[in-house]
Amino acid sequence: MWSEQNIPDQTGRTAVVTGANTGLGFATAHALAAHGARVVLAVRNVEKGKQAADRIPGDVTVQELDLTSLDSVRAAAESLHAGHDRIDLLINNAGVMYTPKQQTRDGFEMQFGTNHLGHFAFTGLMLDLLLPVPGSRVVSVSSVGHRIRATIHFDDLQWERSYSRVGAYGQSKLANLMFIYELQRRLATHGTTAAVAAHPGVSDTELIRNSPAVVRAPLARLAPLVVQDASKGALSTLRAATDPAVLGGQYYGPGGVGEVRGAPRLVTSSPESYDATVQQRLWAVSENLTGVRFPV
């Protein structure tokens, strides 16, 4: 049974974790720092990031990153390039869930723009710091929600004609997986950096607490059976990031019934997520929307 104690020594490694001031991101950053990594908390609210950093022992710094703004994404990447000559782990953890209909600063639907396009752009701008580093990894956090009313709506990616907060979330989490699978295909010839996906099952974080009442109420009744705390939910991400046996293109999640809780193990995603044609189309669309081209 894989646990935090299985994390290898991370001394000398640098990890950038998005959304690391709370919840899964904080638990992920805390565990990596506890095992010797230098950790950068890439967060929208710098003050909250500093408060989180004060609670994590070790070499921890804060970088402002607002994934709802491509200008902020570019500024964060530029700042990190100025301060680091290598990155070992890029963990795309930040996200929003079931938001009311709203747009990012660049006019994208909030969930697709934050969860997918923001991370797509950030990864593309940071990848040159990972490619020279043997054993480096990009890890994106998806969700069991990638199976729920989820498809890539190329005819209405920004949900302008109609809006479903559940459908939009599912699309964004499906996009996270498709991004990792296509990225791994492009990384395979380089042989140094791997792209891996993970999901936390059902974890007690702000994402759940900010969900609509129709979602929160059933979870509150079932919590003892299906909800695990953030430190347990983060284990899938930590295994994807640090287990030497992990291979690029794999997907890790809780091993219990329905993948809602339990020790992390290798899991499979929805059949649609493995469609290479859709992955490649999504990649091309994402490049056009963000203006970011990858060096692979």
Automatic annotation (TrEMBL):
Output the NCBIfam families linked to this UniProt entry.
PRK05854.1, PRK06197.1
| Any matching Pfam family | adh_short
Against InterPro entries, the record matches this protein to: NAD(P)-bd_dom_sf (IPR036291), SDR_fam (IPR002347)
What name is this protein filed under? SDR family NAD(P)-dependent oxidoreductase
Task: Mention one GO molecular function.
Answer: oxidoreductase activity
Q: Which domain of life is it from?
A: Bacteria
Give the UniProt keywords, A-Z: Oxidoreductase
Instruction: Write out the similarity annotation.
Output: Belongs to the short-chain dehydrogenases/reductases (SDR) family.
Q: Has UniProt tagged this entry with the keyword Amino-acid biosynthesis?
A: no
